[in-house]
Every structure is written in structure tokens, then in C-alpha cells.
Design goal:
alpha+beta
């Protein structure tokens, strides 16, 4: 009985963290310097987009889902980052993980984007990146190397991620 209670509590905490983005985990060194996994995904128009197309740019790669509450907070911030730093070489790419594209479409009606939206309904790219929370973001330098990883989204993440973006754009 104790094992079942412990398992239930652990599962409940994990679901809460994934759903709310609470307990933000910032990993800025674990993946630092590793080559970003290449991928090709489709956008809403069905065009195939490759991460390799963005070599020479700083990429903020964000994984999100329609049910993710913190993702609703991250979209305005990502719009702001894209607008503010695009001329300096930043590109925001948001990868949706919903199995049903209609859910993503509804989310996007309510949460506008000025950046590339791609679809990974089978989660294969998310698996390559070891996505463990929603949203999960990977900051990739101009040479295609991961320089920072952020899980969840809160005020501290905004400040840290923007500082990381500025630092990479100066290089």
C-alpha cells in the first residue's frame, strides 16, 4: 500500500510539473556544446522545413502543446524576442506536439505567432531532444550547437533566456 501511495504521489507531482511548468528546471551546461539534432518537419502549409536551413542564425527551438498552460505565457515572449532580435540573427522555431492539428490551430488563433510553427505529432523530434516538460526550449548557436536548455516557463526563464540570446547574438 505504501508503494502504491508513493507511486501515486510521484506521478501526480510529475503531471503537475508537466502541465503547469512549475518547478522550472534550467540546464545550461548539461547539453552545452552538443550538436543540435537535425530534423525536417512540416509547417501548416505542408512545406518541409529543416533545422539545417537556419545554420548561421541563433535559433530558439521551443517544444509546446495546446494543453500546456505555460506555453500560453511563452508565446507573447517569443513573439517579442523574434521581433526584437530578428535583424541580429535570431530565429524562433516552435514545434507543436499535439496529435490533433485542430487543437494546435485553435491554440494559434488565441496565441498569435510571428515565427515558424512546425508539427511533430508523433513526437520523434521531441524524443531526440529528450523533452521532459512543456514547454522545453533549446538555444542553438550559429554553428548548430546547443548552448542552453530551459524546461518550463516563468519570469526567471524569460530573463535568463534573453540574456543567453543576447550573448549568442554578439558572437
Amino acid at each position: 500500500m505504501l508503494r502504491l501511495t508513493s507511486l501515486f504521489i510521484s506521478t501526480t507531482i510529475m503531471i503537475f510539473v508537466l502541465y503547469t511548468g512549475a518547478g522550472v528546471i534550467e540546464t545550461t551546461h548539461a547539453a552545452s556544446g552538443k550538436q543540435a539534432h537535425s530534423f525536417v518537419l512540416k509547417n501548416a502549409k505542408g512545406s518541409k522545413i529543416s533545422l539545417k536551413n537556419y545554420r548561421g542564425k541563433v535559433v530558439y527551438l521551443d517544444f509546446w502543446a495546446s494543453w500546456c498552460v505555460p506555453c500560453r505565457e511563452s508565446f507573447p515572449w517569443m513573439r517579442k524576442m523574434q521581433s526584437q532580435y530578428k535583424k541580429k540573427g535570431l530565429r524562433v522555431i516552435a514545434v507543436n506536439l499535439d496529435k490533433d492539428k485542430k487543437l494546435a490551430a485553435q491554440f494559434l488563433k488565441e496565441n498569435k505567432s510571428n515565427f515558424e510553427i512546425l508539427y511533430d505529432s508523433k513526437g520523434k523530434v521531441a524524443e531526440k531532444y529528450n523533452v521532459v516538460a512543456m514547454p522545453s526550449s533549446y538555444l542553438i548557436d550559429r554553428r548548430g550547437r546547443i548552448r542552453a536548455v530551459h524546461h518550463g516557463f516563468r519570469e526567471e526563464v524569460k530573463e535568463k533566456a534573453e540574456a543567453d540570446i543576447k550573448k549568442l547574438l554578439r558572437k
